[in-house]
Amino acid sequence: MTTSRRPSMAISGTGARVTAFLGVLALAAGVVVAIVAFRDTGDQRLIRSAAELETYARTVQEGERLGPRTIGGLEFEQVRREHGVVVFQQGESLHSPYGYAWSPQGDPGRILEGAEWSADPVDHRFEHLHGSFYSWQGRR
User: Fold this and answer.
1) Sheet of strand 78-82: strand arrangement
2) CA–CA distance, 57 with 88 (Å, rounded to integer)
3) Span 92-105, pLDDT tens digits
4) What's the superkingdom here (predicted)?
5) Per the domain annotation, does 94 fall within a domain?
6) Which among 4, 39, 116, 138 counts the fewest CB atoms within 10 Å?
7) Domain range holding 100?
8) Does the structure show a pLDDT above 50 at 38?
9) How many domains does the chain have?
């Protein structure tokens, strides 16, 4: 009498679970890749809102500091004009403010070099984004 061996249910059940887990893991990785690839960065939103932000920036008076507001679909904690540069502060990270700057005269770093900003002791860093707009990071 010969006996046929059937695979153990525990082994095949474990294999199915491993396959299902790997499938879910691959699906999750695909979702993460899609989110990263298609996310809307703040810089992209700024570029889409540039015309509205520029129109608003032209109305801000020298030395004026304005509180929280939404402009062009972007939220800002403060908007101010210093030495012709309008800064749109979005927030602070580790006590360092960040946001965007509008500077139709060119590089705001050059314009503000050596200038004091309304008793706000921070070093300013700017990176050109689009037209007269720059990303802005203040460091305390």
Assistant:
1) 65-66, 78-82, 85-93, 96-102, 133-139, 123-130
2) 9
3) 877 788 999 999 99
4) Bacteria
5) yes
6) 4
7) 17-139
8) no
9) 1
Q: How far apart are CA 74 and CA 82, in angstroms?
A: 21
How many Cβ atoms are within 10 Å of 72's Cβ, its own excluded?
A: 17
Residue 139, classed as helix, strand or coil, is strand
Tokens representing 139 are 């460091």
Structure tokens at 36: 């990263």
Residues written for the chain: 140
12 lies in some domain = no
**Is residue 4 domain-resident?**
no
Phi, psi angle pair for 120, to nearest 5°:
-115, 90
Neighbours of 89 (CB within 10 A): 19
